[in-house]
């Protein structure tokens, strides 16, 4: 093996070990043994375990960032769904060892590891903004994207620890939460509304956004919910706020056409 | 000063210093000087800077958890809004020094600091579930609450670094994002739908949820959006998916009553 090949091989072996176990449970001897190398040879390439840990984290970061690459084709939610599939696959294979680092409780945390994590978050952020294709994204939209990335990180780490829902559900839910966050941001920022219109027009009924809309339609068909929500619009016929400390009585059903008039009548122009 | 008083005073002084600067920029000498104590006296109480850092972080964690306490009175979004006001006030006063720790890039991170952070997150999670008052919350709902806590953490840390939006906006948006996440979770989990009905019935038009609903109503009044969304419901009159790779053409306007029939017709019962 050449010097470069040996170095890359040691990083690959270290990444494999560090992906499975926390850094305090991986020794230079473990890495040497798994690489078929001697301990002095490992030290010849890396000054110590921390350097090897950071090199393997850098490689993991590059691998993860590469998974964010996605052609700008098809409905946005379906692109994001494919990206999340690759991301969650990565979390499954590399997450166990790096979870403590991401949660802020790893002894191996350093300025070096922090820089790698920041780079990956920035790559995710930039990819999403590129797919949104919105010229000059507002600070509010950038914050929405960053918050959603944090959501994806934490949710997938929680999932890794408990696996309380099927992975495919998580994949779908994360995408749908992005769609919801984007819609909320557009509701606050009129300049985004036109973008949202073409976003929804590009989506398909059987994609993540379509399924979200159908689930919400099902929810609002549950007696009482649409009426309670409609009562919250300022221009709605029934603007009387219910008593706040008492249990809510079921609101009287109204024809949904009338309920919608209340929604549509409230314009923020 | 008694032994206990002196100990508490040192922690208070350390917390003040560690809240403003990263731990590597605070020395035992700084703490001794600010406390009007000698360096040996500080070492008499604490074996070193890390121990003092962890003690001050524990106190910060207790202070923060206490801010989550809120009487179970009034609309839920208004309770959460008050809590977020106190939380963001804490972030402003203590965040600068602990931001690196929460972001996972602090040299002072340890099993001890990790335990404190986990305790605070758990306190936030338990408080929210207590206010929701939902018996036996599902794994999906718990995940939603945890993800939203992560959202609040990251968003407020980002805000601290950039202050790109007014703090009051952030306070409102975080609460509204919780309401949206809760609604999404209920859309996926029919058992939650009844809870959501009484949640909305308790809300007021001028509260965070009311303002969110009004903003969304304004958004859906923008030409094209409601129609594009309605087209995504399986039972809608226009279920034809638009071509996905081409820019969306503006959908034809339809009376909103008809659009709503599409929504309401899609039931998941």
Helical residue percent band of chain A: over 70%
Order of helices and strands of chain A: HHHHHHHHHHHH
Task: Determine the structural class of chain A based on helices, strands and strand pairing.
Answer: mainly alpha
Query: Which chains make the largest contact?
Result: A-B, 108 and 106 residues
Proportion of β residues of chain A? under 5%
| Subunit organisation of the chains | homodimer
Radius of gyration of chain A: 24 Å
Tell the overall outline of chain A.
elongated
> Which residues of chain A sit in consecutive blocks of at least 5 with pLDDT less than 50?
236-269
Q: Please summarize the sheet with the most strands of chain A.
A: none
In total, how many beta strands of chain A?
Answer: 0
Mean pLDDT of chain A: 85
Distance between the termini of chain A: 68 Å
Distinct helical segment count of chain A: 12
């Amino acid at each position: 093996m050449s010097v470069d090949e040996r170095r890359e091989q040691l990083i690959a072996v270290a990444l494999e070990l560090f992906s499975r176990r926390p850094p305090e449970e991986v020794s230079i001897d473990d890495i040497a043994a798994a690489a078929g190398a001697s301990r002095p040879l490992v030290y010849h390439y890396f000054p110590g375990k921390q350097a090897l840990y950071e090199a393997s984290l850098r490689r993991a970061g590059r691998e993860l960032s590469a998974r964010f690459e996605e052609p700008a084709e098809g409905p946005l939610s379906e692109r994001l769904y494919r990206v999340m599939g690759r991301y969650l696959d990565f979390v499954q294979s590399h997450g166990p060892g790096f979870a403590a680092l991401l949660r802020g409780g790893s002894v191996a945390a350093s300025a070096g590891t922090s820089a790698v994590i920041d780079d990956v978050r920035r790559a995710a952020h930039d990819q999403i903004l590129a797919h949104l294709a919105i010229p000059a994204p507002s600070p509010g939209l950038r914050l929405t994207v960053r918050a959603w990335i944090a959501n994806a990180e934490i949710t997938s780490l929680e999932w890794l620890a408990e696996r309380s829902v099927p992975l495919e559900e998580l994949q779908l839910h994360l995408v749908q939460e992005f769609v919801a966050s984007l819609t909320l941001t557009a509701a606050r920022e009129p300049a985004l509304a036109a973008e949202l219109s073409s976003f929804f027009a590009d989506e398909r009924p059987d994609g993540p956004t379509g399924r979200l809309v159908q689930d919400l339609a099902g929810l609002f068909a549950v007696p009482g919910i649409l009426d309670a929500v409609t009562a919250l619009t300022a221009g709605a016929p029934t603007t009387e706020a219910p008593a706040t400390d008492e249990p809510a009585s079921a609101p009287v059903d109204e024809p949904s056409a009338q309920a919608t008039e209340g929604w549509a009548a409230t314009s923020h122009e």
